């Protein structure tokens, strides 16, 4: 058999035609998929080792790769704002409802409707319109010198204003978000006038002008510089889990209480680590999937445990010896969105109170 010139070129012809048709099919079938490439850009101010496993598991379950951009909280918000409509950011993950509220006020977030998020995250731990959701919970606790403060001598945030603590209290700057959130909660509970009187009295009890972070306040109690202090629970829990001799000594010397436990006192002030979907998220579906993933039981345990916090899902057990030792407590169940809403008023009160 001899090939005619046409026959000789047939296979090539077919090949070209085939590859052309194939490209066409590929283009039309996968172009939309390409536009929604399986990635998620996570802007996070969290950086805990356990978060690695948390994100790896999300990729394993969904095939969605997680790109992380980490920076401190305010830098993240600035960056997203500057990136504007072309921001690659899908999810903002940060701490304190006050900061999530700020992101919302800056117009950076979009609302999410998800039956899963709404049923799993308690109503008080998420923004009512779905702008952001809490995934773990921390409490602002009162630390005390076990040797010099008798049990029951200090029981509430209100007690911090008692003149008997004059010159004995250590707290970080009143303008720090953790304190602004506490003041915001006080405003919600007592109104502005009473809260201002409280803040003034509290500032009058300071052992020294505020400096350092929450852990520094705990160290100051251990050093005998003050007898009572305010700190977020995870800082104390971290010291409880530390193997360093000086941290062990601190925990032995310094105890903590959950404030406002008596009925009618409102419970301990709690705040969240949380996340929201960004307004210009290029991978919105992946972003919602990620938030939904964070409320699954196993992700909840990882997420909370990474920073010695409690899962937002009530009664979910976390194998964390420090949290187990701290025990159960009653907490303020009013919506944490108030912590943002009252923030401008809280700033003014802290200023006027001289709580620098
Ligand atoms: Fe912190």
Q: Output the number of helix runs.
A: 15
Task: Give the mean pLDDT.
Answer: 92
Q: What percent of the residues sit in helical stretches (DSSP H or I)? A: 40-55%
Which structural category do the helix and sheet elements fall into?
A: alpha/beta
Strand fraction equals: 15-25%
The radius of gyration over CA amounts to: 26 Å
Beta strand count? 10
Overall form? elongated
**What is the chain-wise order of helices and strands?**
HEHEHEHEHEEHHHEHHEEHHEHHH
| N/C terminus separation | 98 Å
What ligand species are in this complex?
Answer: fe (iii) ion
Quaternary class: single chain
The major pleated sheet works out as: 10 strands, mixed
Poorly predicted spans: none
Name a few traits of the molecule.
356 residues; alpha/beta; ten-stranded mixed sheet; 15 helices; 10 strands; binds fe (iii) ion
Topology readout:
Blueprint: H1 5-35, E1 39-44, H2 49-62, E2 65-70, H3 73-83, E3 91-95, H4 97-105, E4 109-110, H5 115-120, E5 133-145, E6 169-170, H6 177-190, H7 192-204, H8 214-222, E7 228-232, H9 233-240, H10 245-253, E8 254-257, E9 270-278, H11 284-294, H12 297-305, E10 310-311, H13 321-326, H14 337-341, H15 343-352
Helix pairs in contact: 2-12, 6-7, 6-15, 7-15, 8-10
The structure holds fe (iii) ion.
Structure in words:
With 356 residues, the protein is α/β, with parallel strands linked by helices. The protein has helices at residues 5-35, 49-62, 73-83, 97-105, 115-120, 177-190, 192-204, 214-222, 233-240, 245-253, 284-294, 297-305, 321-326, 337-341, 343-352, and strands at residues 39-44, 65-70, 91-95, 109-110, 133-145, 169-170, 228-232, 254-257, 270-278, 310-311. Strands 1, 2, 3, 4, 5, 6, 7, 8, 9 and 10 form a ten-stranded mixed β-sheet that branches. Strand 1, helix 2 (49-62) and strand 2 (65-70) form a beta-alpha-beta unit. The mean pLDDT is 92. The structure holds fe (iii) ion.
